[in-house]
């Protein structure tokens, strides 16, 4: 058995395919060979037949196909509804798949041999895709896991239990990328980007000159060492929940560790289930209930949600995961672009996808963006957030819907603030601490003329000038910032349209 941490072991790329598929079965393998696999890697292809039966015990047997292929067959127990009165022989299905794999994988074996890549193929019958994937990942020096599009429902369960990159196919040659959260050795190359961004600006794949995804080295977001319980509490079973005041006292060690105190808000730190958390004491009752009503109804990976709450006497407390502390200077241009996409995605969720109606944040800025210990940027501080609903006078004959103009005004506040946040990402300057603010010039006043004249290089953070050259993503953020801050089109714009420009969608760019 090879340890995942063995530095001398071949690195592996695991490709997990739905064994029941015929058309498009090899899309994941084809993508992996193009974008993830390097010379002398090991590629482990797993064909999953998870619904052949229930597992009881495991044994393996060889499938001689001229390449290193084996079968992992769970002993199957079939229901008593079998009309023939005896179990169906699972070997027949395995044999059929063996012949099918022999045919479709033969072209790939030649490609692998040319690049000294070792190809292993396994057929897994009666095993949950998550179980077999995690087993193989933990038994090999895995760098990438690539999932068939038919297995996308398992992606987060796999992702949160491995320390490698994960890709999920969305179509031929298109994949969603989730980067490794594990601390890496210090390599010189730059990391791949993840997330909903399947394409980079100008619809060019995120490849290096040798047509491979470069995944080692610095993460899109700076990685920090993890504690033993790094999985965020807000995503664990049983949360969010109501806490008693006594529980909060124990968690915070009697409220002894206060982080900050500002106005009607005090923030304490504590530990819950070996996981660092923060407790916000909200003195304003109306704001507390507003925040709780919103945060109890939203669920998005890029929104800092609550672990729980406490309403006891005059105490109004909200419990959240403790975010990472990341310095902006250590965020590359690609990392900043990635952050822009993820935060834009959280706004799109609030504006367009919330089940209970649109929500406006009303305070989008760099100081309200935090990073989880899974290295995902998250929109935080919902103290000013509100449901985007109009309260019309009772004597007005209303259909119960807000006038479009009022809705647009409220949405535009977030759109405008998002544009200013993009300027902060590009310039490395904070809006509220802009050097010339005391002279009457705001960050927007300084940036807007440069955006309009396309003098983007004068906007760019000088601290990154000698570290990497990625002008494409910077120009995409700049175009989107201008669209948000100066909309002369005479019509309202949505966060989805802005997000398309950030991504580099040429159709969206030409539209404006």
Layout: helices, strands, pairs:
Layout: E1 11-18, H1 27-35, E2 42-49, E3 58-62, E4 68-74, H2 90-114, E5 118-125, H3 129-138, E6 141-147, H4 155-159, E7 165-171, E8 174-178, E9 241-242, H5 245-251, E10 258-262, E11 265-272, E12 275-282, H6 285-295, E13 308-312, E14 315-321, H7 333-353, E15 359-360, E16 369-371, E17 377-379, E18 386-387, H8 404-427, H9 443-452, H10 471-485, H11 495-503, H12 506-511
Parallel strand pairs: 1-2, 1-6, 2-5, 4-5, 6-7, 9-13
Antiparallel strand pairs: 3-4, 7-8, 10-11, 11-12, 12-14, 13-14, 15-18, 16-17
Helix pairs in contact: 7-8, 7-10, 7-11, 8-10, 9-10, 10-11
Task: Describe this protein's structure.
With 512 residues, the protein is an alpha/beta fold. Helix content is 30%, strand content 20%. It contains 12 helices and 18 strands. It has helices at residues 27-35, 90-114, 129-138, 155-159, 245-251, 285-295, 333-353, 404-427, 443-452, 471-485, 495-503, 506-511, and strands at residues 11-18, 42-49, 58-62, 68-74, 118-125, 141-147, 165-171, 174-178, 241-242, 258-262, 265-272, 275-282, 308-312, 315-321, 359-360, 369-371, 377-379, 386-387. It has an 8-stranded mixed sheet, sandwiched between helices. The chain has a 6-stranded mixed sheet with strand order 9-13-14-12-11-10. Strand 7 (165-171) and strand 8 (174-178) form a beta hairpin. The termini are far apart.
């Amino acid at each position: 058995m090879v340890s995942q941490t063995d530095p001398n072991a071949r690195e592996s790329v695991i490709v997990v395919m739905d064994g029941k598929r015929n058309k498009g079965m090899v899309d994941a393998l084809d993508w992996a060979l193009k974008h993830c696999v390097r010379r002398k890697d090991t590629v482990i292809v797993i064909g999953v037949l998870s619904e052949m039966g229930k597992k009881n015990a495991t044994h393996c047997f060889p499938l001689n196909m001229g390449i290193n292929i084996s079968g992992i067959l769970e002993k199957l127990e079939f229901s008593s509804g079998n009309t023939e009165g005896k179990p169906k022989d699972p070997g027949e299905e395995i044999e059929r798949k063996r012949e099918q794999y022999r045919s479709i994988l033969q072209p790939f074996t030649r490609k692998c041999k040319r690049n000294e890549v070792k190809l292993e193929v396994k057929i897994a019958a009666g095993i949950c895709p998550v179980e077999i994937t995690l087993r193989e990942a933990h038994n090999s020096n895995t760098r990438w896991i690539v999932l068939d599009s038919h297995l996308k429902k398992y992606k987060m369960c796999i992702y949160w239990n491995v320390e490698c990159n994960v890709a999920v196919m969305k179509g031929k040659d298109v994949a969603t990328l989730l980067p490794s959260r594990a601390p890496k050795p210090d390599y010189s190359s730059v990391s791949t980007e993840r997330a909903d961004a399947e394409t980079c600006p100008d619809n060019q794949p995120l490849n290096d000159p040798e047509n491979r995804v470069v995944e080692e080295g610095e993460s899109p977001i700076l990685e920090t060492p993890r504690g033993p319980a790094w999985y965020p509490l807000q995503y664990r079973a049983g949360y969010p929940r109501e806490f008693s005041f006594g529980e909060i006292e124990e968690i915070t060690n009697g409220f002894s560790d206060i982080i900050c105190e500002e106005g009607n808000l005090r923030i304490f730190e504590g530990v819950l289930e070996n996981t660092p958390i923060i407790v916000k004491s909200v003195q304003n009752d109306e704001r507390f209930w507003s925040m709780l009503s919103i945060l109890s109804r939203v669920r998005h990976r890029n929104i800092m949600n609550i672990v729980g709450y406490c309403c006891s006497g005059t105490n109004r407390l909200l419990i959240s995961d403790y975010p990472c502390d990341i310095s902006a200077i250590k965020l590359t241009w690609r990392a900043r672009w990635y952050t822009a996409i993820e935060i834009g995605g959280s706004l799109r969720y609030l504006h367009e996808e919330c089940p209970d109606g649109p929500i406006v944040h009303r305070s989008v800025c760099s100081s309200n963006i935090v990073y989880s210990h899974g290295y995902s940027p998250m929109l935080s501080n919902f103290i000013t957030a509100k449901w985007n609903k109009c309260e019309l006078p009772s004597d007005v004959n209303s259909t119960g819907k807000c006038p479009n103009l009022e809705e647009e005004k409220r949405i535009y506040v977030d759109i405008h603030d998002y544009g200013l946040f993009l300027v902060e990402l590009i310039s490395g300057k904070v809006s509220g601490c802009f050097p010339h603010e005391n002279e009457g010039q705001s960050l927007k006043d300084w940036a807007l003329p440069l955006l309009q004249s396309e003098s983007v290089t004068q906007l760019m953070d000088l601290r990154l000038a000698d570290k990497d050259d990625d002008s494409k993503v910077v120009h995409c953020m700049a175009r989107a910032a201008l669209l948000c801050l100066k909309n002369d089109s005479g019509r309202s714009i949505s966060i989805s349209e802005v997000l398309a420009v950030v991504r580099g969608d040429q159709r969206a760019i030409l539209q404006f």
